[in-house]
Write a structure and sequence with these properties.
This protein is of the alpha+beta class. It contains 2 helices and 4 strands, in the order E-E-E-H-H-E. A 4-stranded mixed β-sheet has the order 1-2-3-4. The longest helix is centred in the last third of the chain and has 21 residues.
Length: about 90
């Protein structure tokens, strides 16, 4: 099944992540991306904390495509299991 866009949850500055979710039918999949990965994708200066949601929105298509690849490969982490993206996931 193909994942679909769900919701932006928020930026956790102390953990350096942005949390969001995707949907697999009725099942919500917890997802996160490191803020350093988002900065690497944009290849510019680091975004400020109040700019993270806008940055996520700009990069959402690329982020969600990467989530889809990791989901299909069943590369889950944590409890409950979710998808975590880092800079290395966008290389290659």
């Amino acid at each position: 099944m193909t994942l679909t866009t769900s919701r932006f949850i928020g930026h956790e500055q102390d953990r350096g992540i942005v949390q969001f979710s995707m949907q697999d039918g009725a099942k919500e999949i917890a997802c996160a991306i490191s803020t350093s990965a988002m900065d690497d994708l944009e290849r510019g200066p680091r975004a400020r904390p109040n700019e993270r949601e806008a940055q996520f929105t700009r990069l959402r298509e690329r982020i969600e495509a990467c989530v889809e690849r990791k989901y299909q490969a069943t590369e889950f982490e944590g409890t409950p299991p979710g998808i975590v993206l880092r800079s290395i996931d966008f290389r290659g």
